[in-house]
Task: structure prediction
Amino acid sequence: MIVAIDGPSGAGKSSVSKLVATELGFSCLDTGAMYRSIAWQAVHDGVALDDADALGEIARTYDIGFTHEPGNPSPIGVSIGGEDVTLAIRTAEIDRAVSPVSAVPAVREALVAQQQRIGRSGNYVVEGRDIGTVVFPDAEVKVFLTASDEARARRRVLQNEQRGVGSTDFDEVLADIIRRDEYDSSRAASPLKPAEDAVHVDSSDMTIDEVVACICDLARKAQEG
Ligand code: DC
Result:
């Protein structure tokens, strides 16, 4: 079974997806981490972010891997070309680089194929922007998770503080979130938009436990038939 969780940055997709996966005994796939890894590799290799051919080549040739702890189906780390980039993909530099990289059709084509292969290998909670619309249009459960701009910026600042990486300046984070939403929603290739059959969940005034319970409920109903 696939539980697709789409939505803008900072809506809580990552934390919610991991908890939903644990609760249901599913694995978890963070597709944003895959786009971030390609952006990191491009910056590392000195590839221009408007060089679509070179970016497509990176996505087709470098292996992205997820590292797991025994007994935990949700990955704890991500690597590209064998290099651990778990923290390196969360910097403000990669926050900026990932939008143009994820707008390149050849990058999306390569990553979508990998996501489809991984997701259909078991029961997965898959989070991203185009999971319910493009990657798994036949997902059994589709959620579009949103929150107000301010709630999302507050959460992202907290997350960056906890990780010790990325900006912790509220105004900078808010501006970046708004900029990325505009970019992600207006790009030609797979723009951020809810699937027609997605359940909309606005998490602004919900606790994380409430959001998780709501999505697990949808998944259990889908499992029952
Ligand atoms: O979820 P995130 O903030 O880590 O995602 C990083 C970027 O990758 C985001 O700006 C949009 C892009 N992305 C995408 O285009 N499609 C996906 N399925 C996941 C992320």
